[in-house]
Design a protein that fits this description.
The complex is a heterodimer of chains A (276) and B (294). Chain A has 276 residues and is mostly helical. Chain A has a single domain, classed as MetI-like (MetI-like fold), CATH 1.10.3720. In chain A, α8 runs antiparallel to α9 and α10 packs antiparallel against α13. The longest helix of chain A has 35 residues. Chain B is globular, with a radius of gyration of 24 Å. Classes of the chains: A mainly alpha (276), B mainly alpha (294). Chains A and B meet through α1, α3, α5, α9 and α10 of A and α1, α3, α4, α5 and α7 of B.
Chain lengths: 276, 294
């Protein structure tokens, strides 16, 4: 009996603790939604309104009026998709070579790929900006996307996966006269699908949430992604929190959907990649 | 035939590596060298490029600002690292329990990780509003007077740390969770038979066995702390009175607001050296300090 009671009180303790932590996590989100539905004058009411007295979508409407926000959504979607496509395809192609095509100096080159992970983005951002400037690519999508051709993390994860594929599939196809390109697209990529999904989702989330690089490259309002647009709004309408929170919510929702759809794949994929 | 095959192979390798090599060379390697070259010049985009040796580095080290920025970064680390370790390890051990609804909680803690830093920083700037924000409203409930947070030079950095812990705990929590799950339960069973207390079990079994993960989390945290940026940029822009100025924020300002490309590049090389040293320490420590299960 005593033992049972002890187990019960332990259980209550755990639920209490996890609820306190959840409260710390969720309260800000609650406040974000609540703020986005307030009228401007309710923002500075004392005491604060946890639940808005007058619920209104005014802030969402203003947001699209004072800033080309619909355009920002498009820019973010385009850059995230195009950037992810470029990085994943490029990384997968390199990974195929490092995993399945032997040549002299391969391991050295791969080590070199990995070593560049040590170079922080902040170190190369100034020269990269200057390179884009000399190519007249400032304030273009191309400028934001180009550095994505190299992705050491994606290359590494996919190479680990491709290495574990049996060579016999590939050799058999090769004997049948299939080209390497065909083998890559028809045999190798389908076989590493879990890892490919993981890498795709992680790179997509990284692109969607990227800030510093697009902030440097994209200078006109029409080209800005959501993160850059929101930070500009923060500078110009720094106290219109109902509007800023509305924008923040819009920027978060796609990520939650993408993650929700891909969660199972990601957790599986990471364990395949030996990262966990 | 053989030579044709060989040619074909070389051609294929080139095609497959081309996109990556293009990105690697044009946007990693050339910039790497270019950046160091720039750090030895006084280039301001408009004027000529003059080679000035180590002047930028010397000016940096002599400036009061540089040491303030270092102190600010250190201050951030001193609060953030113990905070994130305790919170995320605590979270992981809660999520490790077999309780119903645990999956639901795992999702909740991951939402801040999915949020962009820009959105999260905007949110926390508003949460920490001294008069109209809910944080001080809650503090006041306990009969205390909440600080002015981002408007107070002593409280601005702790405010940024609070936001960072909120955003990162789900990420590090999941990393600790997988470390906890990999511990062989027979250790705990044996300890239980020996009558060990929970605290004993934690310090003598759990902690040594998750030390590789712990080291990983600490190192990642240090490297991230050196590169603190969006939080500062959105929440304080380095203020008040320079109390939240940090390295990347300074590099950004010098390069893209004042166009002092040389000075900014020197700053980014010092940052790179810090990160390099941290990584070398990690590699050394990994061999000595950390306990691996054989």
């Amino acid at each position: 009996m005593n033992h049972k009671r002890k187990a019960l009180s332990k259980k209550i303790f755990f639920y209490l603790m996890i609820s306190v932590l959840s409260f710390f996590i969720l309260l800000p989100f609650f406040w974000m939604v609540s703020t986005s539905l307030k009228e401007s004058k309710a923002l500075t009411s004392i005491p604060i309104q946890w639940i808005p007295e007058n619920v209104t979508t005014e802030a969402y409407v203003t947001l699209f009026n004072v800033f080309p926000f619909a355009r920002s959504i498009f820019n973010s979607v385009f850059i995230a998709f195009a950037g992810t496509f470029i990085s994943v395809l490029s990384a997968a192609m390199a990974a195929f070579v490092f995993a399945k095509i032997e040549f002299r100096g391969r391991e050295i080159l791969f080590g070199f790929f990995l070593a560049t992970m040590m170079i922080p983005g902040n170190l190369v951002m100034i020269p990269n900006y200057l390179i884009l400037r000399s190519l007249n690519l400032i304030d273009t999508y191309t400028g934001v996307l180009l550095p994505g051709f190299f992705n050491a993390f994606g290359t590494f994860l996919l190479r680990q996966n491709m290495k574990s594929l049996s060579d016999s599939y590939i050799e058999a196809a090769f004997m049948d006269g299939a080209s390497r390109l065909r083998i890559f697209f028809r045999i190798v990529l389908p076989l590493v699908k879990p890892a490919l999904t993981t890498v795709t989702v992680l790179i997509f989330m990284g692109n969607w949430n990227a800030y510093l690089w697009p902030l440097i490259v994209l200078t006109s309002k029409e080209k800005m992604t959501l993160t850059v647009g929101l930070s500009l709004l923060n500078g110009q309408h720094g106290t219109d929190y109902n509007m800023l929170m509305a924008g923040a919510i819009i920027s978060i929702i796609p990520m939650i959907i993408v993650y929700g759809l891909a969660q199972k794949h990601i957790e599986g994929g990471l364990s395949v990649g030996g990262l966990k | 035939m053989v030579s044709l095959n060989k040619k074909r192979k070389v051609f294929d390798i080139m095609i497959f590596l081309l996109p990556s090599l293009f990105g690697l060379i044009v946007f990693q390697l050339i910039p790497f060298g270019y950046s160091f070259f720039l750090s030895l010049t006084d280039w301001d985009v408009l004027g000529d490029i003059n080679f000035i040796g180590l002047t930028n580095y010397l000016n940096l080290i002599k400036s009061e600002e540089f040491w303030r920025v270092l102190w600010n970064t250190l201050y951030y680390m001193i609060i953030y690292i113990p905070g994130i370790l305790i919170v995320s390890l605590g979270l992981a051990s809660l999520l490790n329990k077999r309780l119903s609804g645990i999956k639901f909680y795992r999702v909740i803690f991951y939402i801040p990780v999915l949020t962009s830093w820009v959105a999260a920083a905007l949110l926390w700037k508003w949460l920490l509003s001294p008069y109209y924000g809910p944080i001080n409203e809650i503090v006041n409930l306990f009969g205390m007077n909440g600080p002015s947070w981002l408007y107070d030079k002593n409280w601005a950095m702790p405010g940024i740390v609070l936001a960072s812990i909120w955003k990162d705990m789900g990420f590090f929590g999941l990393i600790f969770l997988s470390a906890l799950k990999s511990i062989n339960p027979t250790y705990y069973e044996a300890a239980k038979i020996d009558g060990a207390s929970n605290i004993n079990k934690f310090f003598n079994i759990t902690l040594p066995l998750i030390s590789p993960t712990m080291l990983f989390v600490i190192i990642i945290s240090i490297i991230n702390s050196f590169q603190l940026f969006p939080q500062v940029m959105i929440m304080t822009e380095g203020g008040p009175h320079g109390s939240t100025e940090v390295m990347v924020e300074r590099i950004y300002k010098y390069a893209f607001d004042y166009y002092k490309m040389g000075y900014a590049s020197a700053f980014s090389w010092i940052l790179f050296v810090f990160i390099l040293i941290t990584t070398i320490i990690q590699l050394k420590l990994q061999k000595k300090w950390v306990h691996y299960e054989s």
